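Dear colleague,

As promised, here are the two records you asked about, laid out in our usual form so they can be pasted straight into your sheet.

NAME FIELD: protein one
SEQUENCE, THEN STRUCTURE:
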Amino acid sequence: MNGNLVQFGGDLHLHLARLQVSLGNINGLFAGGAIAHEAEFVNRTQELQATIKESVERAVALREALRAGLERDAALAPETLSSWVSKRQTAQLHARADLIEQMATIAVELAALSTVEAERLTVTAIMARRQAIALQVEREKQL
């Protein structure tokens, strides 16, 4: 019986690890005065953009699956759940748990995909800010 929970945890683990890496990367951009060179930012932006392009269709499919799952679970009347419990209909209860676990896994995967986009936007924002500051400093030197 605990095998289901072990499998669920395993399914989540990969996505949670990706989420942690992306969040760590974003945090690292500002931690300890870490200053990346422009070339590093350009390379990282290109890597992230390629990753995002590969995952766009996946994200659309995941959002649709999540929406459908949420609607399906919301359509279950409380009386139905009560009936399943009182009649000890564990197959239906397990099926519902499977659906909810699947939705949780999808939500975590979507979060991981979103953090990749957040990382790309953060790197792009830093590059844009650096460019603006460099031009401002250059202009002020000319005055």
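NAME FIELD: protein two
SEQUENCE, THEN STRUCTURE:
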Amino acid sequence: MITIGVTSNSQPTITVGLESTGVFLGIVVSLTVLLGSLVKIVSTFNKVASDIRDLKDYIKNHASSEGHERLLQQVRILQSEFNAHDKMLGIHLQNFENRKEAVQFLFGQLNEKIDNKSVRIEMEVKEIRKELKEVQGFLHKHEDFVIRNRED
């Protein structure tokens, strides 16, 4: 029990009992435990951050000491050469496609010419056969002349 009062000589007085002392000590102990836990958590976070920093430094040092930088540089060079060859291949493939289309176009023109000539020749052969039959018929009527067919 805590009592606060004023005496006749105008000085304040505080009376502390056993129960109030127990509550006060409980609060102090709880705050001390919380403060200790907070310190432990902060120190753990600091240790983790320090370990991460050390690992980064180790990896950087390891990479330079083991020659990884040279390997990475070679990989970059190879990658740039690969990209250049890939572009050249793309250009050659496009050139091939263009030539292929040109050749196909020329073959198409040649096929059209051949088809036109064969149609014209067939028509001329039909006309010649008609004329030949007329000549055969004329010779057979007027002179009794018979032309043998090759098919016979």
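A couple of things worth noting about protein two: The helical segments are 18-65, 68-143. The radius of gyration is 56 Å.

Best,
R.
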